[in-house]
Specification:
- The complex is a heterodimer of chains A (473) and B (209).
- Chain A has 473 residues and is an alpha/beta fold.
- Helices cover 34% and strands 17% of the residues of chain A.
- Chain A is built from 17 helices and 19 strands.
- In chain A, strands 5-4-3-6-7 form a 5-stranded parallel sheet.
- Chain A starts with 8 loop residues before the first helix and ends with a helix.
- Chain B is of the alpha/beta class.
- Chain B has one domain: Aconitase, domain 4.
- In chain B, the strands form 2 sheets. Chain B has a 4-stranded antiparallel sheet, with no helix packed on it.
- The longest helix of chain B has 14 residues.
- Chain B is globular.
- The C terminus of chain B is likely disordered.
- The chains are: A alpha/beta (473), B alpha/beta (209).
- The interface between A and B is large, with 83 and 67 residues.
- Chain A: Its cofactor is [4Fe-4S] cluster.
- Chain A: Belongs to the aconitase/IPM isomerase family. LeuC type 1 subfamily.
Chain lengths: 473, 209
Amino acid sequence: MSEPAPRTLFEKIWDSHRVLDREDGQTLLYVDRHLVHDGSAPAFELLRQRGIAPRAPDRIFATPDHYVPTDTRDRAAITDDRHRGMVDALEANTAAAGIRMFGLRDANQGIVHVVGPETGLSQPGMLIVCGDSHTSTHGAMGALAFGIGSTEVAHVLGSQTLWQRRPKTLRIKVDGTLGLGVTAKDVILAIIAQIGAAGATGHVIEYAGSAIRGLSMEGRLTLCNMSIEAGGRAGMVAPDETTYAYLAGRPYAPSGHDWDRELARWQRLPSDPGAVFDREVSVDGDAIAPMVTWGNSPEDALPITAHLPDPAAEPDSERRAAMEDAFAYMGLTPGAALESVTVDRVFIGSCTNGRIEDLRAAAEVARGRRVAEGVVAWVVPGSAPVRKQAIEEGLDRIFVEAGFAWREAGCSMCLGTNGEIAAPGERVASTSNRNFRGRQGPGARTHLMSPAMAAAAAVTGHLADVRALMAEG
Amino acid sequence: MQKFEPVEGVAAPMLRANVDTDLIIRIERLVGTGRTGLGQHAFEQLRADPDFILNKPAYANSPILLAGPNFGCGSSREGAVWALMGAGIACVIAPSFGDIFFANCFQNGLLPVVLPEAEIRALARETEDSQGVGRTRVDLARQVVVTPSGREVPFAVDARRREAMLEGLDDVALTLKRQAEILDWQARDRGARPWAWNSVAADTSPGAR
């Protein structure tokens, strides 16, 4: 008998969820976990129109995050009727279908991509979908997780399956040791700057290498979260001791004998030696510096020590026109030092960087300092449990004493769908994932960076190299 | 969903790379369950510029968009597709698409066509050289784009997706015919790891007790 061919992590999960292969290359996949949020009303509506009920309510979990305010937990206090309507619709739809919802006052409420891993709902080897592009986050658990549209959400609700064309595989190896002040956020921004915003289109990324193995679970979640910003269908990290230690004891994680049996399965998931990827990319981890973005695509990322590019020096005319557009929108001067760019607002939070480790890193910088004159700085925990833990550790006091606003959990300023936006022309140092035009409000100017870098911007009033502040102590 | 009929009209070139779904429609416009009435908000941030391609009279009613690489990147919001369709666009031709946007197109009857960048530039030139009167035709049944000069450029599309679009069926309609196979898979997986099936039904969260 010949040895089975070596397979990648992705291939193992894909194979074990294949219901059937269609002759045109589409595969029907069975979905282990379906996460829904308050943007899912159109999908439930479509299902109702077809007279179909959710097929497997016990595999579906819900939490309101996109449309909730983060200054109150009182639903009645949501002043915008349309926003409150989205939150109400989620409650009505999940109650009618018998779907477990972590509501606004639930101890587990939060951003869906923080809640999944934190509750232990997202586990290695699972196929996880959600009607949100940042579902790639859950791949950090060693799962295959990706975002889908409304009609596909309805499809999964109705059938617990999804049609997919098998994506290609891309391994990104980051070897070396990350320097002081360099985090998972800097790693992913450096990767996107290297391969481009479409660099992984049509591919599932597996992150590997010593710098990735050395990341905490929170760091891996940040990394996989932004896979979509490189165009990736999903991002994954093979499960290992870090994963198991994170998962053990969480409310929905298996326990006792079930844990042992699942653990034995999980340990067989990592890519086999000799498994072949469609593409391989290497990134030098030692060379990564704290990064910030300057333009309207996440690929427009530079080390904080750099100067802004000059569109006039760009030979390609379309690229030059795009750069000129970005400079005009962002209100920046070609060639200026990044550190000279002043900020109006700071947002620390989101499914990218709203976890406890992110808040600790920001608090470390904020401790004993003051938010600069004229800067409005917010800390928005990614979930109620993160918020609770931060309070237990005294991080909220550090933030409040430094002049940051300490808020409730939600998506908040990441995407401007809940009324929490910047004013036109305001410049935001943000730990979120997208610097698209208008993402944080019409005319708002977003610079992406890590939580420590955002805290450094808050206390200095400009884009700043956090390493200098760390040296001050 | 409507059956996809051949599309013919002036193709509007908008070749910038990485046109994201926030640019196609602001999320603030996507509240409620409505899929209609979003056309007025399509490309809202760009519409303010009088030089924006779809503001030019020749292209104001273009049913075909010629786009740059990575069109529709970013969010999973299906509203991006609804907004484009609401603005009268039935087909987007680009060198590459954001994966989720691409899938969303097929669920709604907006045809995404992948062609090489050079081919799209040639198509844009033909249209511009015609002063915006040369018409492009996209025929899904024949899988060809017919350029203003009459050249036929073939394109690829998954066979069943093509069929579904021509018949006006989304995946929800197609999959309900495969119940037996889904039940088979469930039985196999339940046999392979019964404990996972037991635990999924048990609500162990503190809030549920």
